User: Fold this.
Amino acid sequence: MPNRGEALDTLGWVYAQKGMLGEAEETLKQAVALTQSLHWPPVIPLQLPFLLLGLLTSLVQAFVFALLTTIYLALMLPHEEHEESAVAHA
Assistant:
């Protein structure tokens, strides 16, 4: 019998499909016991820091885009001249 949890898991499901439920249950229990012992202590997956960095970059990019859009719209709107500045320039 294989000594890897993944192989035992597949073998257990093959036993279950063939109707050999006793062997399937025992094999699947062994597979669970092997795979649980392999994942201790828990480690952070490698993609998690990159995912968080990508999320941070996206948020900064969205903030800068919103800020630049606001500045552009504020500059494009017509400005009213104040009476004080019109008198001072006259």
In short: The first helix runs from residue 5 to 18. The chain has two domains: 1-42, 44-79.
